[in-house]
Specification:
This protein is α+β, with helices and mostly antiparallel strands. It contains four helices and 17 strands. It has helices spanning 2-17, 159-175, 198-202, 232-238, and strands at 25-29, 34-38, 47-51, 54-58, 68-69, 75-76, 82-84, 87-88, 106-109, 112-115, 120-122, 131-136, 141-149, 180-186, 189-197, 207-215, 218-226. β11 and β12 (131-136) form a beta hairpin. The radius of gyration is 18 Å and the shape is globular.
Length: 241
Amino acid sequence: MKKKLLTLIVGGIMTAAMSFTAFAGEWQQDQTGWWYQNDDGTYLTGGWNWVGGKCYYFSENGYCLMNTTTPDGYTVDASGAWVVDGVVQTQGASTDTGSGQATGGVYTVNGLTFTVPAGFYQEEDISDSSSLFFYNDNHDGVIGVMSEEIPEAAQYGTLLEMYSETILDAAMNSVGTPIAKGVKQFPTGTWYCYLYDAAKEFDIPGQVYAYGRISGSKVQMVMLVGNVGMAPDDVLMNYLR
């Protein structure tokens, strides 16, 4: 039921958002440092972004941090790329051993990197290349991390940024009626948060928190169902990059 719920919501967003796209861009440099400029003239700021398959941290002014420790405690090398034990982390890779006991493991799924909280384990039989699912010991709490490419997104240009909230709202309302909605800032950027009464909407105990955004050409979701043992915002603040 939980797997069905998570994929239902993601599928609703995919249907509503499938006609939107990402910005391309290029690296720029001045006397202060390097930044990444999008084709529309905007630039990446305020946290982590994947560029060319590697993850970089950009300051509020848009400059890429290099050869240092980021404000959230991670290491970047002289080129600005995120490294773990000196190894550059690339999009689509995973540093986990795949043993099933995922606590502390680091997983990357299509532009999102997730460090598994203590007491959670990957459900390998329902995870795939675009979605990861982690249950706690009692199987009364689940975290889903999903990132899907939007089909044929490139032809719709800047409509992605203009209408992302409207698309998300329509998609989330199509699968259930949220009892609350918020817009929140995390190290990874802006996310829209939807709270559901799980018993009323989905016939399962507790509450469901759904965090969603359209990032570039991707629809990305983080779902928390049941007893995850921590404040929902803490998952996105401390475990997602």
